[in-house]
Write a structure and sequence with these properties.
alpha+beta, lipopolysaccharide transport protein A fold, ten-stranded antiparallel beta sheet, 2 helices, 16% helix
């Protein structure tokens, strides 16, 4: 039962991460119309800062390069490159961050706990509502952590799947007292 509660909390964290990455209210000012904000779930914008930006109107792709920082409320993501495909069609849209590593930090509003993580690549599939962390992926909250080659979070079904790379294993550390406190 305790392990089930811990798994539920990790699911909650990933849900918040995936949803707030692209769907929370922004503290940044928005000057664009709601139509322009379709690239993010629930049509709510986030602030993106980068060394440069390229838009391919014909292919409907926007690319941010160099020291990319995404900030939205209690969430910050740092990446070397972020590519958003099919910006105007959420049924096809994917948001991919690349880095060495892609890092993120989130303050969960419910309990003000800090969650951090990193991986070489983060892919958010808007239609499938999936977040995939690939390449030396790790999620950390206090001393609780999941480390694997690939961590997939299915938001719709609230499932985490951690898959090891070849000749590797999934590593998880759970501190029961901390998880209990997180669920308060």
């Amino acid at each position: 039962m305790r392990l089930k509660k811990q798994a539920i909390y990790l699911l909650y964290f990933l849900f918040c991460l995936s949803f707030t990455c692209f769907a929370d209210e922004s503290t940044a000012e928005s000057s664009s119309s709601p139509k322009d904000q379709k690239m993010f779930a629930n049509d709510k914008p986030i602030a993106i800062d980068a060394d440069n930006q390229q838009i391919d109107i014909e292919k409907n792709i926007i690319t941010f390069n160099g020291n990319v920082q995404i900030v939205q409320d209690g969430l910050t993501i740092w990446a070397d490159k972020v590519v958003i495909t099919d910006m105007q069609d959420s049924t096809k849209q994917k948001i991919t961050g690349y880095g060495n590593p892609v890092k993120y930090k989130q303050i969960i509003p419910k309990n003000n706990k800090v969650v951090t993580g990193h991986s070489s690549q983060v892919i958010y599939d808007v239609k499938e509502s999936n977040v995939v962390l690939q390449g030396d992926a790790e999620l950390i909250q206090q001393d609780n952590r999941i480390k694997s080659s690939i961590i997939t979070y299915d938001v719709k079904n609230q499932r985490i799947i951690a898959q090891p790379g070849k000749n590797e294993r999934v590593k998880t550390t759970i501190i029961p007292i901390q998880v209990k406190e997180m669920n308060k």
